[in-house]
Design goal:
about 230 residues, mainly alpha, 2 domains, two-stranded antiparallel ribbon
Length: about 230
């Protein structure tokens, strides 16, 4: 909400300066809807805000979500700003954006508290439990795959002696994937996907206020240990 409030002030300043550029460059009596000076001023503001937002996201990763909200607000404002002819239109548009954003925040807060009261930590803990089960499944699939190699003739599908223009070269036809190899690939793919989801949800769990034995450093350490298991696995 603070990021949106700051974004509304910056958006109002940028759209107002664009209107001033239009007023100072439009010939008397002109009915042109497009003004190149106003568009240029709004473009400069848009470029500056995109640069500033990406710098903040890179320097302070914990501010990623507020900066994204700020960027959406200002980008929308500066995209429509060249069509505004008066300061009153700018004020009306910024007020409308504020109502839209705050209404969305209120709805999402109500849903998170009364409809789906699930904390980010709960989601992360469930993912960690699934991670352990995924590791067990991957290890089991690897064991079954290695055992299947004892019963499979991996050279049975090699066909020798195919004639080609440049000479005689062997042609290798790869056998169809066995059920064990498919199960192993599926287990590793599921574990990799869960690892990516866990890394995405971890920052939100670390930012929550909670009572318990595990703090944010413990959660990060657990994910680091999971990563140490996943790479060799």
């Amino acid at each position: 909400m603070i990021a949106i409030a700051i974004g509304s002030a910056i958006a109002m300043l940028g759209t107002w300066s664009g209107v001033q550029a239009r007023l100072h460059t439009t010939p008397p009596g002109s009915t042109m809807l497009y003004n190149s000076s106003q568009a240029a001023v709004c473009g400069i503001w848009l470029f500056f805000n995109i640069y500033f937002a990406n710098v903040m996201r890179a320097k302070f990763p914990t501010l990623q979500l507020p900066v994204i909200m700020y960027s959406i607000f200002t980008n929308v404002a500066y995209t429509y700003a060249p069509s505004f002819g008066t300061t009153a239109e700018c004020e009306s548009f910024v007020k409308l954006l504020l109502k839209v954003f705050f209404t969305a925040f209120a709805l999402s807060a109500g849903v998170s508290l009364f409809v789906f009261p699930v904390s980010s930590r709960t989601v992360v803990f469930k993912e960690m439990s699934g991670y352990i089960m995924g590791i067990q499944s991957a290890v089991k699939s690897q064991r079954l795959y290695l055992e299947s190699l004892e019963r499979t003739d991996m050279f049975s599908d090699i066909i020798e002696g195919e004639e080609e223009d440049a000479g005689t070269n062997p042609r290798i036809i790869h056998p169809h994937a066995s059920p064990e190899s498919k199960a192993l690939k599926g287990a590793i793919a599921s574990l990799t996907a869960l690892h990516g989801k866990l890394n995405g949800d971890l920052p939100f769990a670390k930012q929550e206020f909670a009572y318990g034995k595990l703090d944010c450093r413990d959660l990060a350490q657990i994910v680091s240990l999971f990563r140490g298991i996943l790479i060799p696995l």
